[in-house]
Write a structure and sequence with these properties.
The protein is mainly alpha-helical. The protein has 2 domains: about 80 residues, no CATH class; about 80 residues, no CATH class. The protein has 10 helices and 2 strands; from the N terminus they run H-H-H-H-E-H-E-H-H-H-H-H. Strands 1-2 form a two-stranded antiparallel sheet. Helix 2 packs across helix 6 and helix 7 runs antiparallel to helix 8. The protein starts with 6 loop residues before the first helix and ends with a helix.
Length: about 200
């Protein structure tokens, strides 16, 4: 029979998870690039900038004046597409091709000059929800260990400093796993009772 964690131990485990979440937030804030370092981050940052200005396209005057057919493709950077709208295509406009979820949040944060906080905040939330998931599945000590291991993951740390959707997407799936785990835990407990 597994040993139960005492309430004081559960509080200590929650404190460890909070410390791990704060560490993830601090790493994301301190070492976050907040610059377009590739096609993905360029797409997300451009789309956030455009949404904050209530538009969706970037005009390319060179593409509109180029004499060859489909010139907009020549002047379109990676992560973008020539605009499919006829009125915008005539002006050589391009649009970002990434999903709008993170850019919408970044655009709202941009209005209050807090866009640097978006991905680190999602990272801290992902670490905390990892703790919640581990606690629901097996106990507070498992949740704390999972939160610390998630924070120390090189892939997580790399994505935590990039303005891309990898960390927010990880956070997005956590609540559904946490809600499903409550049923999984009750099934696990009933199996343990049946085996005894």
């Amino acid at each position: 029979m597994p040993m139960e964690v005492r309430p004081r131990g559960a509080t200590a485990c929650a404190a460890v998870a909070i410390a791990a979440a704060l560490a993830a937030f601090a790493v994301g804030l301190r070492w976050g690039t907040f610059a377009a370092g590739g096609s993905d981050s360029s797409c997300y940052m451009n789309e956030a900038r455009l949404f904050s200005r209530f538009t969706t396209h970037i005009e390319q005057p060179l593409a509109a004046s180029a004499p060859w057919p489909r010139a907009a493709w020549t002047f379109t950077p990676a992560g973008h597409l020539p605009s499919p709208a006829p009125w915008a295509a005539a002006r050589g406009a391009i649009v970002p091709m990434c999903p709008p979820g993170l850019p919408i949040v970044m655009a709202i944060a941009r209005w209050i000059r807090a866009e640097r906080f978006v991905v680190p905040l999602f990272g801290a939330l992902a670490v905390w929800l990892t703790f919640v998931l581990g606690r629901r599945i097996d106990g507070a000590s498992t949740g704390a260990a999972a939160a610390v291991l998630a924070t120390c993951s090189p892939i997580f740390l790399y994505q935590l400093v990039q303005p891309m959707t990898d960390v927010p997407a990880r956070r997005g799936g956590s609540p559904s796993r946490c809600s499903r785990s409550r049923n999984g835990r009750s099934r696990l407990a009933s199996r343990r009772r049946w085996r005894s």
